[in-house]
């Protein structure tokens, strides 16, 4: 396919990114305008409380290729991306952050990958520039995740990637509410190509990830892709039960022969504590899954739209 024939959609989930809207628009235009004939840049305003939507609207007023989907409140990046994917009409869709941490210069390598026939072209970053603690915690997390999760997840492979129309349609078929896109992108499969790049720091504004959000996201990654944590609970439960049965029998036999010797303060307290802890952990894990079932059962929409200049009805579903 000639590069000129491709219709590219660039999706940018944006939450309080007012200072970044113009810079990312210019950086993208520089890369796209001379080489790609048809493209659209869709900003998804994820309930920003600053001037983000005003900047986007101003741009879209002058530049018809700029589209926006403004959500009614902050639904989180996952839902914002889902809204973007629903509204994108391109033959290929590129997802990137608003803060210029995803180099726009990679766009051509992404599109080249698409032309070579890949359905997903993934930009993988190294962790230079991340704080020491965050990068160490991330690698530890991915090491654990690799053991626990059934889909393949790699450190540094995030949402910055190109998806072909086929891949986008596949992702859209997955309607679960608790979305962990990295996992979903990996789950859909298709031919994938990885392009590496050096990490850059955020140009303006602050990261929207608090420690709590990161931990929540981490738990999401583990529990949304398998039931192994439940299985681990079951195994620890069985092991604790067998061990306590063993020690009870030993104690019983001892009492039969020696009579009651010591009051046994230590053993009582330690077993109560240990069992209490094991039970709480297990309950917590079960709760995680039940919580997800609850959220799915409610079948609420993933997001609500306040205003948009992309019609929901014009979703382009061209199969390749
Ligand atoms: N974002 C969003 N909704 C949120 C949080 C973040 O749409 O609730 C967007 C944000 O505007 C940015 C991207 O997701 O374009 C990545 O966010 P951020 O830069 O804060 O994450 P980090 O790079 O620190 O992982
Ligand atoms: Mg960022």
TrEMBL record:
The keyword Chaperone does not apply. The chain crosses the membrane at residues 232-257, 269-290. The lineage of its organism: Bacteria, Bacillati, Bacillota, Bacilli, Bacillales. This is Glycosyltransferase. Keywords: Membrane, Transferase, Transmembrane, Transmembrane helix. Residues 9-170 form the Glycosyltransferase 2-like domain. GO terms for molecular function: transferase activity. One of its GO terms (cellular component) is plasma membrane.
